[in-house]
């Protein structure tokens, strides 16, 4: 692998550690995550960091699956952050949302243990939706741990088919722009069966070595604009050999539209529509992208006529 490869942002780069056959992917988000987080300036910084990690984690998990539709990663808690959502389509379009209902506790506590102090008790779930003609798949697990890495580690531990670990980072650079990154490692059983039972002896040592090397990446390295994804992988795993594959681009593209909002309004009865009116119009704002759609009496009458 060349250490002169130029940095590419907003993408997923799959790789394999050749010595052990462990698969992985690295996600690097720049302009996309910066755009999403700056759409919600009212969200406190520690909560923005958590959402940045969550979105990057969602991209890593989504691209580990084969699907045609929407992968949704969701977390709900009873702390200051009551909900986070990360959507990733099979085309690589990402969107995210966070809901903060209470004042945050101590800043340092929130940065040190964001899951413990921001989400508190709750659950994490992922859904794969491939349309009306396909069965919807969902997995749910209780939130445990102090950090998002620990929480998703508990999530992965519920599966006996695949060993997975992640390393996450998100933050603002000196230029004031957001960047985020995730490295994910995954190990399948040698011949099917239970991954926990198969991870013994040399296989277990190789797994632990790969996880240790992954965790050695600092937050600065993970989010360094000048350090390419290829170069970071080489720095971490070159002694064991690392093979990279084709990148998958990521972009931001909210799925909201005036037509979808119109359809939702048509489901309301006359009393609810009248109650929603303010200054002779209804304004609906998308929680993901902050786009506002406005409808007056004439718009609603035309919608009912077309319907």
Layout of strands and helices, then pairs:
Layout: E1 11-17, E2 22-29, H1 31-38, H2 45-62, E3 70-77, E4 81-89, E5 93-100, H3 107-112, H4 114-119, E6 122-129, E7 137-142, H5 148-157, E8 163-172, E9 178-187, H6 195-198, H7 201-215, H8 219-223, H9 229-237, E10 242-244, E11 248-249, E12 251-252, H10 258-266, H11 270-276, E13 281-285, E14 292-296, H12 297-306
Question: Please, could you describe this protein's structure?
Answer:
The protein is of the alpha+beta class. Helices cover 35% and strands 30% of the residues. The chain has helices at residues 31-38, 45-62, 107-112, 114-119, 148-157, 195-198, 201-215, 219-223, 229-237, 258-266, 270-276, 297-306, and strands spanning 11-17, 22-29, 70-77, 81-89, 93-100, 122-129, 137-142, 163-172, 178-187, 242-244, 248-249, 251-252, 281-285, 292-296.
Rg, Cα atoms, Å: 21 Å
Query: Structural class of the secondary elements?
Result: alpha+beta
The domain tally reads 2
Figure out the total of helices.
12
Secondary-structure element sequence? EEHHEEEHHEEHEEHHHHEEEHHEEH
- What is the C-level CATH assignment of the largest domain? Alpha Beta
Oligomeric state as shown: single chain
CATH architecture of the largest domain: 3-Layer(bab) Sandwich
Under CATH, the topology of the largest domain can be stated as Hsp33 domain
Distance between the amino and carboxyl termini: 58 Å
Number of strands: 14
Query: Could you report the average pLDDT, rounded to the nearest whole number?
Result: 88
Determine the fraction of residues in helical runs and give it as a percent range. Answer: 25-40%
Can you tell me the overall shape?
Answer: elongated
Summarize the biggest pleated sheet: 6 strands, antiparallel
Low-pLDDT runs: 1-7
Strand content: 25-35%
CATH-assigned homologous superfamily of the largest domain? Hsp33 domain
